[in-house]
Amino acid sequence: MEKVISGIRPTGNLHLGNYFGAVKSFIEMQNNYECMFFIADWHSLTTHPTPENIRRSVRTILAEYLACGIDPDKAPIYIQSDVKPVLELYLFLNMNAYLGELERVTSFKEKARTQPDNVNAGLLTYPTLMAADVLAHKADKVPVGKDQEQNMEMMRLFARRFNRIYNVDFFKEPASFHFYDKAVKVPGLDGSGKMGKSEGNAIYLCDDEATIKKKVMRAVTDSGPTKLNQEKPEPIQNLFTLLSLVSSQDTYDYFNDQYNQMTIRYGDLKKQLAQDINAFCAPIRERITAYQNDEEQLARIAKQGAEKATESAEKTLRQVREIIGFRPY
Ligand code: AMP
User: Which of 4, 29, 141, 314 maximizes the CB count within 10 A of its CB?
Assistant: First the structure.
């Protein structure tokens, strides 16, 4: 079975955009591939989080991914910093990664521009750490968005370069992978653009019923259709897109017909949408709380993941050390 590995940025609570854009595919992937998921806490150090911040966000992400349906018995989920052999590979790869090529990476240039007083070496070598995370397990595929495509190219370059330097056929080149043919874009409720943490327009999986309702009822709309069967302007289309994700086909068709007939009442649509979002989130929310309150279980799952991932990475590293020339006397 092909190996798929995916890193998760520990950047706070999951929202509907994360769920339908990424997490849902992970849940399906674990049934079709040999999957591993890790929470990229080393990577997060580039922005200098506080210790408390790291602990809390890693724990939150772990609880939320499990609540969404990652099954640690099918797909190990581990914390990046628990798997030390990856650090060694990071060091080895850095020896053959060149300043010029690292500086040319778009995401590095972007960060250097937006945070000029914190252009640290971790930021520069982000692609080598990402390569180490994946190559340490000799994964076949990595599910990535467009923004990670260049990092994937660097990863393949490092793999090829290692093979060439040592004249081996050791690392395979991991492929970028899109589980769904068409990427899902979950819109926000503010009329345009996508749902996102930094946009401040997100509905979180852990939001309670009242919060969901408040957010949905505030969604931007217009004064209603003025022609039969007219095309929906973006704010309205966004509500229908959300409806298509969380509501039944019947509900969707009902409001769609009402829109086409110009009899729609946005208040009713929003009430239904809020109700359906809540129905979707409620079981996940309950499981999030259950995991958050069960520190022991989280620790056990993280340990189990770390053991599997360390075993896999250590196996690769034993061979890498041998290839490079680090042999025990
Ligand atoms: P972020 O929370 O921005 O770090 O996003 C993590 C991942 O969630 C991204 O790589 C996307 O795959 C997915 N994602 C985030 N927001 C959306 C959205 N509004 N629509 C679809 N996918 C999203």
Answer: 4
